[in-house]
């Protein structure tokens, strides 16, 4: 007899957290995550808890190797938790699912043999849309990312910034509950990066999607985030969650400088080697 396949997610018992917000979408609760190397288990993330409300953009920042990508991949369902729970809309994230779309830093995350339109439309067809529906949806999001004139190009004919725009359009087109972004602008030049940050802000506002964004850059964290979750050195815990006001987003303003200094001091507290951007900031 054919056994039914196990559910991709499992309902989580509703246990109220202290300070719980009614609109919580992502809950990371006492997450502990590690890797087994040559038979020995090493913890990267020790005990991390934070909540993300629906529609928020949360930035994850911390020293190199503190487990930011590890945490994001676990929320995406690519890695298992050693301890704790992660839920999205009350369901445990035990496997990847269409409710969580991921954008990585690498430019090679596109299908090289498909053109731009098909790179975005193909996953929609896989999710049950007809070809016409998928292409219509793909065109809509590619237009939002300023790519209407590049629909028939293949990835090798695109710049790094254009490839990341396609990857972002593809993620948004899936209309996920959450967008997980792992340093998507990390390999871009400063100008392209600033442009894409502005485009991401605009499309995020327009769609109301919830975003968890890993970055090395304090400036990026302030410009894009509603709140910034600062992790410690590994095995990591949450050092502080910093709220970013609208005033603080004005680069060069007093509030901007004050938040930047505060985030810099949080990242330097262990006195160990800091990330490039942070080191740059102290010089
Ligand atoms: N596949 C793996 N096998 C074993 N150890 C790993 C693996 N991936 C990551 N690690 C280790 O886990 C720790 C956390 O890595 P992770 O990439 O999550 O950190 P990060 O904060 O994203 O780093 P960075 O800021 O440098 O990108 C590091 O010590 C890393 O060496």
TrEMBL record:
InterPro entries: AAA+_ATPase, ABC_transporter-like_ATP-bd, ABC_transporter-like_CS, ABC_transporter_ATP-bind, P-loop_NTPase. GO terms for molecular function: ATP binding; ATP hydrolysis activity. Keywords: ATP-binding, Nucleotide-binding, Transport. Residues 9-23 have a biased composition (Basic and acidic residues). Residues 28-258 form the ABC transporter domain. SMART domains: AAA. Residues 1-23 are annotated as: Disordered. PANTHER family: ABC TRANSPORTER ATP-BINDING PROTEIN, TAURINE IMPORT ATP-BINDING PROTEIN-RELATED. This is ABC transporter ATP-binding protein.
